[in-house]
């Protein structure tokens, strides 16, 4: 199956950890480079990007809990 943004989003909604890992592996370095341009600090850039990616997972988890609960 070809990986598309829609596939990844649907996989995230379904709670598939592989989709989260794909996003992390594909975009983490790129997003850190962009964040470093704004922050001029590698550690701060990595922290911000890590927090954003973590929040994507948490939003998905909370969304899933609302559907179940």
- In which range does the helix fraction lie? over 70%
Oligomer: single chain
N- to C-terminal distance = 32 Å
Tell the overall outline. Answer: flat
Radius of gyration: 14 Å
Low-confidence stretches: none
Mean pLDDT: 86
Structural class: mainly alpha
In this structure, how is the largest beta sheet organized?
Answer: none
Number of strands: 0
Order of helices and strands: HHH
- Roughly what fraction of the amino acids lie in strands? under 5%
Task: Supply the number of helical segments.
Answer: 3
What does this structure look like?
Helix content is 86%, strand content 0%. It has 69 residues and is mainly α. Helix 2 (17-39) packs antiparallel against helix 3 (42-68). The termini are far apart. The mean pLDDT is 86.
Short account of what is shown:
The chain has helices at 5-13, 17-39, 42-68. The protein is mostly helical.
Key features of this structure:
single chain, 69 residues, 86% helix, 0% strand, mainly alpha
Secondary-structure topology with pairs:
Blueprint: H1 5-13, H2 17-39, H3 42-68
Helix pairs in contact: 1-2, 2-3
